[in-house]
């Protein structure tokens, strides 16, 4: 017996028996679909969280980044003295060092006067530390006193800033300090901040009167072209005070992601949600397979009496599990795509359905159904022809 | 003539120790090619147990059961499967697969081996269904057939693989007189054509006339062998 008939015949029998009882099939598919949607949503939220966590750092333009060791992430910085940056300037490969000032502040909605917290980035407008065209194009406006740029990907609760600015209503308050919005740019929100604002370092000190130039939150280092980043990083580490961390671009992104994955319980919560979804799906598929075997045990015993081997029925059960996985996954994927779009429009966070995620979830669902198959094949022992006839 | 089934001094009990209940006591019986043997007896006399041992469905440990030159006492599962594959089994209930049409049910008996193409299997199954008078019902599912029709599908399924042995356990029990007569009539006709040995267990005395030999099993002992 060749391999094709080895799996084709049991699979065909499994298929015929599955489609025979449409009600039960619908229930089983719904169960798998439910698990599938649950896992997709959990993973979607998790990835979206991680992606949004780095929406600002990913746009930073630098080779090396200095942060205080006590800083948990960019949104929870720890201040350090600006002279640490001067130390870095001493290295021959370093071209430029820019201090970046970070703080959360409340922004007053121009229309409703409601205040919400957002992230304020302060830096010298002449330095080119953000790879965001709109920020670099508004350099001149940023040099003016009490001006800011507003991130139009911020949550809508801050008001329709682009339209308000176009209409000339661009005066509002940050931290109860009057500023004017000079324009908008595109960055993206994170779980830490509902919006973003960039301003000059001078304006930053005006908005936050208790801050001064000597204490910075981050240092952005640019090297001369052709320098070895890891080598400079290693050399600088020796020169810097031990309380200063120095990261490459990739290390910074990983660190920002890891903060949400590990330091915050959010990674755990979504992981837990994923597992719960799979467990519920497992139980449903197991129940369906188990009752199927129980109901069909006379038929299986009959086939055994005709000379079918025990392994044939194991293949039938796994084929059923496979069909349920595929049949539940397809509508589950379609529903999840729709829910991703809904979520994107509701929470303003990117939720892309990447091929990677599709494959991952399908593998999860397939393993879930295979596991249910393993649990259910015990019941095949009940199909013993000697006990039945 | 060669002996297809040769049973000598078969003893079989259910349970063990104090709970041991003997079912078959020193049963000896042989059946030859093309022979139709009918075994009758009251319920609980051990008829079905005897049938399941001969059919390779139940393991017995005392005596000798040789079926198609294979010893079934103390045999491996593989030997029993080989015997089952050359045996056509007809059950008291039709035991058809609910989800499959009559044609698919019959061709299930041919799917264990790769010697045929799908087309050949379906043609053969169709031929057999025509032979049992169900040419118009090939694509019906069991629930769309009457009791007599189902049992005829089941006969077609048992015979389609040209088995050397046909074992039938109360094939007429759930049928009325006419469908019962028809069913066993077809069984006899087709079996004679293919030269299979038939062991038919029943307490339906209406079908005694089809047998070459009638045995009575009572309390695990063969009376008028």
What characteristics describe this protein?
heterodimer, A: 389 residues, alpha+beta, 2 domains, nine-stranded mixed sheet, two-stranded antiparallel sheet, 17% strand, elongated, B: 225 residues, alpha/beta, Rossmann fold, four-stranded antiparallel sheet, globular
Description:
The complex is a heterodimer of chains A (389) and B (225). In chain A, the strands form two sheets. Chain A has a nine-stranded mixed sheet with strand order 6-7-5-8-4-3-10-1-11. The mean pLDDT of chain A is 90. Helix content of chain A is 54%, strand content 17%. Chain A has two domains: 3-53 and 266-388, no CATH class; 70-242, no CATH class. By secondary structure, chain A is an alpha+beta fold. The radius of gyration of chain A is 29 Å and the shape is elongated. Chain B is of the alpha/beta class. Chain B has one domain (3-222): Rossmann fold. Helices cover 31% and strands 26% of the residues of chain B. Chain B contains six helices and ten strands. In chain B, the strands form two sheets. In chain B, strands 6-7-8-3-9-10 form a six-stranded mixed sheet, sandwiched between helices. In chain B, strands 2-1-4-5 form a four-stranded antiparallel sheet, with helices on one face. The longest helix of chain B has 18 residues, at 177-194. The two termini of chain B are 19 Å apart. The model of chain B has no long low-confidence stretch (mean pLDDT 87). The interface between A and B is medium-sized, with 24 and 32 residues.
């Amino acid at each position: 017996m060749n391999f094709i008939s080895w799996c084709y015949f049991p699979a065909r029998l499994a298929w015929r028996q599955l489609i025979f009882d449409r009600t039960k099939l619908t229930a089983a598919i719904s169960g798998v679909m439910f698990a599938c949607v649950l896992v997709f949503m959990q993973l979607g939220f998790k990835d979206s969280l991680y992606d949004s966590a780095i929406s600002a750092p990913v746009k930073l333009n630098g080779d090396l980044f200095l942060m205080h060791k006590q800083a948990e992430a960019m949104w929870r910085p720890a201040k350090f003295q600006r002279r640490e940056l001067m130390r870095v300037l001493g290295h021959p490969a370093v071209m430029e060092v820019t201090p970046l000032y970070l703080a959360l502040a409340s922004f007053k909605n121009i229309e409703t006067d409601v205040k919400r917290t957002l992230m304020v980035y302060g830096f010298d407008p002449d330095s080119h530390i953000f790879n965001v065209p709109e920020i670099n194009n508004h350099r001149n406006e940023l040099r003016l006193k009490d001006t800011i740029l507003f991130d139009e990907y911020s949550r809508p609760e801050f008001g329709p800033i682009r339209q308000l600015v176009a209409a000339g209503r661009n005066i509002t308050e940050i931290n109860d300090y009057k500023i004017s919005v000079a324009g908008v740019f595109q960055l993206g929100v994170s779980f830490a901040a509902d919006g973003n604002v960039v301003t000059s370092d001078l304006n930053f000190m005006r908005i936050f009167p208790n801050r001064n130039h000597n204490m910075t939150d981050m240092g952005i280092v640019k090297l001369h072209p052709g320098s070895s980043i890891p080598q400079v990083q290693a050399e600088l580490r020796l020169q810097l005070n031990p309380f200063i961390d120095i990261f490459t671009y990739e290390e910074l992104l990983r660190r920002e992601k890891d903060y949400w994955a590990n330091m915050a319980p959010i990674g755990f919560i979504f992981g837990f949600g994923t597992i719960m979804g799979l467990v519920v799906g497992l139980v449903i598929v197991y129940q369906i397979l188990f009752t199927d075997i129980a109901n069909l045990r006379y038929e299986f015993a009959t086939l055994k009496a005709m000379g079918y081997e025990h392994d044939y029925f194991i293949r039938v059960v796994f084929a059923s599990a496979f069909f349920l996985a595929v049949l539940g996954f397809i509508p589950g994927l379609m529903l999840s795509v729709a829910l991703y779009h809904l979520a994107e429009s509701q929470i303003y966070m990117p939720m892309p359905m990447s091929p990677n995620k599709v494959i991952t979830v399908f593998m999860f669902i397939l393993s879930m159904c295979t596991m249910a198959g393993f649990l259910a094949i015990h019941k095949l022992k009940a199909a013993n022809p000697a006990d039945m006839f | 003539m060669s002996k297809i089934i040769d049973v000598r001094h078969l003893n079989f009990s259910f349970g063990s120790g104090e709970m041991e209940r003997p079912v078959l006591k020193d049963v000896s019986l042989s059946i030859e090619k093309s022979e139709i043997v009918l075994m009758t007896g009251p319920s609980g006399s051990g008829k079905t147990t005897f049938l399941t041992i001969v059919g390779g469905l139940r393991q017995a440990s005392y005596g000798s059961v040789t079926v198609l030159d294979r010893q079934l006492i103390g045999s491996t599962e593989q030997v029993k499967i080989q015997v089952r594959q050359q045996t056509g089994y007809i059950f008291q209930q039709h035991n058809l697969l609910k989800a499959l049409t009559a044609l698919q049910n019959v061709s299930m008996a041919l799917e264990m081996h790769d010697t045929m193409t799908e087309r050949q299997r379906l043609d053969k199954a169709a031929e057999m269904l025509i032979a049992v008078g169900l040419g118009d019902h090939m694509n019906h599912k069991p629930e769309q057939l009457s009791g007599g029709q189902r049992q005829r599908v089941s006969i077609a399924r048992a015979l389609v693989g040209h088995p050397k042995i046909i074992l039938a356990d109360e094939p007429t029990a759930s049928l009325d007189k006419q469908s019962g007569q028809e069913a066993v009539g077809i069984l006899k006709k087709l079996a004679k054509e293919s030269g299979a040995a038939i062991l038919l267990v029943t307490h339906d005395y209406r079908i005694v006339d089809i047998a070459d030999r009638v045995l009575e099993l009572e309390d695990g002992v063969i009376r008028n062998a």
